[in-house]
């Protein structure tokens, strides 16, 4: 057993000596995040490589993001199924959505400071607003290929997305628009969103959304996109209605 440990350490040191300075930094930082020594650093180099306009560019994070999305979904689905044995399909689906939705994945990626692991680019590339979540999924994909499923699952649930963090999401509202729709369907009420473009004094174009319940206009909001305006208006409508109707209590009873 001691001999095995000796050779493991020897091989690890030998492998590290062969790494470039950049790969050595990547391996060290990943060990802090994962709590495990990465085996194939090339996977993580790909996971933190951005897409470029060059036709001859190396692989980027997108393929691993695709894989990580599926692996993460499976891990979370199995965890929820085992953790909430009495929950119905609707509740499990809602919980999974809260965990793997883009906003939450972005937060997880930001907390782990994954953009600091991006490979250096010869040209400056604008990072999209979802880059942190995309890199989080790419990291899960790389971990899956590097360690296989069981170890990947352990790393995800012990290091990247712990059960305590999942529990915190239980009562979190991900979409006010979806919550209002669910409540209206139960109460047999009609909800309608009217959204139009508006020109601001500084000539910037924004979207204004009005929320209607039947014949009553109950809230409105402006944002830089139609989707954001509707969600913001729905949030305001929720706070107004929740004081009167206790929407949260009604939807939990479904």
TrEMBL record:
Classification via Pfam families: dsrm (PF00035), Ribonuclease_3 (PF00636)
Listed GO MF terms: double-stranded RNA binding; metal ion binding; ribonuclease III activity; rRNA binding
Known partners and oligomeric status: Homodimer.
Binding residues annotated for Mg(2+), in chain numbering: 65, 134, 137
Annotated InterPro entries: dsRBD_dom (IPR014720), RNase_III (IPR011907), RNase_III_dom (IPR000999), RNase_III_sf (IPR036389)
Domain DRBM residues, every copy: 175-243
GO biological process entries: mRNA processing; regulation of gene expression; rRNA processing; tRNA processing
Catalytic residue list: 69, 137
Cofactor(s) demanded: Mg(2+)
PROSITE patterns found in the cross-reference section: DS_RBD (PS50137), RNASE_3_1 (PS00517), RNASE_3_2 (PS50142)
Catalyzed reaction equations: Endonucleolytic cleavage to 5'-phosphomonoester
Claim: tRNA processing is one of the keywords in the record: yes
Chain's role: Digests double-stranded RNA. Involved in the processing of primary rRNA transcript to yield the immediate precursors to the large and small rRNAs (23S and 16S). Processes some mRNAs, and tRNAs when they are encoded in the rRNA operon. Processes pre-crRNA and tracrRNA of type II CRISPR loci if present in the organism.
Family: Belongs to the ribonuclease III family.
GO CC annotation terms, alphabetical: cytoplasm
Protein's UniProt name: Ribonuclease 3
Organism: Chryseobacterium piscicola
Location (main, coarse): cytoplasm
Compartments it resides in: Cytoplasm
Chain ranges of the RNase III domain: 27-148
UniProt EC number: 3.1.26.3
Keywords: Cytoplasm, Endonuclease, Hydrolase, Magnesium, Metal-binding, mRNA processing, Nuclease, RNA-binding, rRNA processing, rRNA-binding, tRNA processing
Lineage, top ranks: Bacteria, Pseudomonadati, Bacteroidota, Flavobacteriia, Flavobacteriales
């Amino acid at each position: 057993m001691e001999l095995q440990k000796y050779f493991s350490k020897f091989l690890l040191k030998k492998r590290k000596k062969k790494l470039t300075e950049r790969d050595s930094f990547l391996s060290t930082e990943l060990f802090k995040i994962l709590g495990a020594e990465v085996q194939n650093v090339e996977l993580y180099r790909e996971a933190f490589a951005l897409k470029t306009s060059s036709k001859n560019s190396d692989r980027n994070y997108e393929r691993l993001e695709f894989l990580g999305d599926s692996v993460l979904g499976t891990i979370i689905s199995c965890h929820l199924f085992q953790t909430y044995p009495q929950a119905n399909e609707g509740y499990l689906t809602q919980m999974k959505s809260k965990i793997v939705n883009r906003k939450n994945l972005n937060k997880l990626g930001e907390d782990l400071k994954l953009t600091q692991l991006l490979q250096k680019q010869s040209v400056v590339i604008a990072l999209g607003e979802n880059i942190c979540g995309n890199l989080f999924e790419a990291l899960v994909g790389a971990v899956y290929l590097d360690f296989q499923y069981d170890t990947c699952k352990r790393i995800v649930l012990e290091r990247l997305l712990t059960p305590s963090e999942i529990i915190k999401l239980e009562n979190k509202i991900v979409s006010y628009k979806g919550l209002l729709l669910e409540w209206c369907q139960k109460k047999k009420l009609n909800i309608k969103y009217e959204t139009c473009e508006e020109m601001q004094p500084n000539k910037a174009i924004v979207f204004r959304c009005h929320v209607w319940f039947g014949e009553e206009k109950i809230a409105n909001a402006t944002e830089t996109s139609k989707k954001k305006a509707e969600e913001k208006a729905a949030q305001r409508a929720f706070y107004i209605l929740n004081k009167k109707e206790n929407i949260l209590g009604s939807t939990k009873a479904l």
